């Protein structure tokens, strides 16, 4: 069990919506902030990427005949809303937090500058990376992988509503089997719907491990930060020797 020194935590926007499924649930965002703050107090450096699906999805908008680029930009702005809400909740926990955006909006957040972000982390501040990569057609999963690599995180942790990666959809198939550990290539070749292929490929090419875990289980963020067996680890799994 090896604790992580620096973590990039990806949170889906839907998690912040709570039971309502839309917007921000005050109780849910407070509980998430409390758990993140508890981990930060142990000295772990934390970067956060929050999705915007609780407000807007560019892909869904495109399906309704809105221009995809416009829809993606609207989705990026939704991540800024979530980032500011999470910053407020974290600072109510006494944890200094900075929101850095890939789209310039200096009245509400800092522009993303890699060296400045790393300096914030070294000073014990949580950094929330908002507005994706500023480019359309890239998801917040890809933005999370990119930021994790840029800040040299030890792990990319994805907090979701399920407890790991399965061989098939566990919500539809009762016999779905959860992987404790799985290779990047298996996730890509079998199109296991846990993270965008581009994000998985970036992590594979740079040997950055991914941990997928259930964010709704109390204490899981702390367990993840300590390196405890949790959810599914996506990494370069050594091939078994032939007998």
Task: Summarize this structure as a short list of keywords or feature phrases.
nine-stranded mixed beta sheet, 9 helices, 11 strands, two-stranded antiparallel ribbon, Carbamate kinase, alpha/beta, 243 residues
Characterize this entry briefly.
The chain is an alpha/beta fold and 243 residues long. The protein is 38% helix and 19% strand.
Topology summary:
Layout: E1 6-11, H1 13-17, H2 26-40, E2 45-50, H3 58-63, H4 68-92, E3 97-101, E4 110-111, H5 114-122, E5 126-130, H6 140-150, E6 155-160, E7 165-166, E8 178-179, E9 181-183, H7 184-189, H8 197-205, E10 210-214, H9 220-225, E11 232-235
Parallel strand pairs: 1-2, 1-6, 2-5, 3-4, 3-5, 6-10, 9-11
Antiparallel strand pairs: 7-8, 10-11
Helix pairs in contact: 2-4, 6-8
Commentary on this structure:
With 243 residues, the chain is an alpha/beta fold. The chain has one domain (6-235): 3-Layer(aba) Sandwich (Carbamate kinase). Helices cover 38% and strands 19% of the residues. The strands form two sheets. A nine-stranded mixed sheet has the order 4-3-5-2-1-6-10-11-9, sandwiched between helices. Helix 6 packs parallel to helix 8 (197-205). The longest helix has 25 residues, at 68-92. The mean pLDDT is 91.
The number of distinct β-strands equals 11
What's the N-to-C terminus distance? 29 Å
**Whole-number total of structural domains:** 1
Largest sheet: 9 strands, mixed
Unreliable stretches covering 5 or more consecutive residues: none
**Average pLDDT for all residues:** 91
Q: What integer value in Å does the Rg equal?
A: 17 Å
């Amino acid at each position: 069990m090896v604790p992580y020194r620096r973590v990039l935590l990806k949170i889906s926007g839907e998690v912040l919506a709570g039971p309502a499924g839309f917007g921000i649930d005050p109780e849910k965002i407070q509980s998430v902030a409390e758990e993140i703050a508890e981990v930060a107090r142990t000295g772990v450096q934390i970067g956060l990427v929050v999705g915007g699906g609780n407000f807007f999805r560019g892909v869904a908008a495109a399906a309704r005949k809105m221009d995809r680029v416009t829809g993606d930009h609207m989705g990026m702005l939704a991540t800024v809303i979530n980032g500011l809400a999470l910053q407020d909740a974290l600072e109510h926990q006494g944890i200094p937090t900075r929101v850095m955006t890939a789209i310039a909006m200096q009245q509400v957040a800092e522009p993303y500058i890699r060296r400045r972000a790393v300096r914030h982390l070294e000073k014990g501040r949580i950094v929330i990376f908002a507005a994706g990569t500023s480019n359309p057609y890239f998801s917040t999963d890809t933005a999370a992988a990119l930021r994790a690599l840029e800040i040299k995180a030890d792990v990319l942790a994805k907090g979701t509503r399920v407890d790991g990666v399965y061989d098939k959809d566990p919500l539809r198939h009762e016999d779905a089997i959860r992987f404790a550990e799985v290779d990047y290539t298996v996730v890509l070749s079998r199109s296991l719907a846990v993270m965008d292929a581009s994000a998985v490929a970036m992590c594979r090419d740079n040997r950055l491990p991914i941990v997928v875990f259930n964010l709704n289980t109390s204490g899981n963020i702390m367990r993840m930060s300590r390196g405890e067996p949790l959810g599914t680890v996506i990494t370069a799994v050594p091939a078994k020797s032939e007998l």
